[in-house]
Each structure stands twice: as C-alpha cells, then as structure tokens.
Amino acid sequence: MEKFFERGNVLASACPSRQILQHLISRWGALVLISLHSGTKRFSELRRMIDGVSERMLTKTLQELEEDGMLVRKSYNTVPPHVDYTLTEFGEQASSKMFELVNWLETHLDEILQQKLKKA
Q1: Nearest-CA neighbor of 36 among 106, 83, 86, 97?
Q2: How many Cα atoms are found within 13 Å in the side-chain-facing hemisphere of 25?
Q3: 84: which strand partners?
C-alpha cells in the first residue's frame, strides 16, 4: 500500500509543501504570523498593525492561512460583525520560527545594510 502522506520535498515542483510555504513566507503571510504571535486579534487590529496591507490582501492572506491550518477564524453574531483570528498549534510553531527570523534580521539590519551599500 502506497503512503498517502510522506515528509515533504519542497524542492519538488509538485510537493504540496511549496504552496503552504508560499503562504507562510509571502509578503503579508509573514507579517500576519508576526502580528498574531502575541495573541488573538480582530481583523481591524491586524489591518492597523500591518502598515500598507489592503483589506482585500489581508482577507486573502487570512483565508489562505486558515485553509493551511495556521489560524482559526471565529465569527460572532453581533452588529457590527466581530471576527477574531487566533493561531493554531501549527500556526504558533510557524509564527515562532518567523519571529526568530525577523528578530535576527532586525538585530543585524545595520550590518546587512552596510554590506549592501558597499556593493552598490
């Protein structure tokens, strides 16, 4: 019997991990993961936190991350509508990794920018 799920091979074009990776490291996906690292947020909070994201792109990104099992969308039957977004266990793990990468980047930003200027 053939295994249905195996460890992914992100270098293979047909590997489903590529699409999930794309959602996680996309421009807005990474910033959503960073924003939700500190806990549950409402859509409007995320929109304010992530400077430059349009409502349409934030909605699309949240839907992709929800489909990938990285976050849970909870809708309340209120007027006006109230929707919360919370990381799942997988989302928390991915967010922690992304948070580490961003922390490393911000810690070394001056050095990286200096190297960039030297090459210009």
Answers
A1: 86
A2: 7
A3: 42, 74
Q: According to DSSP H, which parts of 26-54 are helical?
A: 27-36, 43-49
Instruction: Give the Å distances, CA to CA, from 81 to 39, 44, 56, 88, 108.
Output: 20, 11, 17, 22, 41
* Radius of gyration of the CA atoms of the chain, in A: 17
The per-residue pLDDT for range 27-78, each reduced to its tens digit, is 999 999 999 999 999 999 999 999 999 999 999 999 999 999 999 999 999 8
User: Do 61 and 49 contact (CB within 8 A), yes or no?
Assistant: no
pLDDT of 73-103, one tens digit each? 999 998 888 999 999 999 999 999 999 999 9
Contact 72, 85 (CB under 8 A): yes
Whole-model pTM? 0.86
